[in-house]
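Appendix B. Raw example, untouched.
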Amino acid sequence: MQLKVQLKYFKPPIWRSVVVSSLATLGDLHRVIQIVFGWDGDHLHAFGVGGHSYSDPSFGLEETGEEEDVRVRGAFRGKIKVGYEYGFGASWQHEITLQKVLPWTPRLPTLRAWPSRASRRGNIPTRTRAGASASCTRRVRQR
């Protein structure tokens, strides 16, 4: 599946286009996004799919399903866009768009945790440029 991952609210646009296996999970997609944007994964994140949120269960986010339970093909079933938020303090909002469904090919890696092809536009934002006035929109479950 060819996906376009675009940071919202930035001019000029900042995006990456990647090809991932339809068997990849949202957790795999998170790792791909980290690679193609050059980030190190040290912030909380969540996906928004059809009114439901999915994230890493170790974060303890309220009303959030497990990202490893949802495959990319299921997330885009009947939908063209999926949301992704990274860094709840900076609130980097992304829009993930299904560009095309590609035929299966043995050249795609069986290990799903990296993009097999990527193109890009725009430099990644620094922490000081990205949404400094944004507020945290997620609640952490009390333990």
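End of appendix B.
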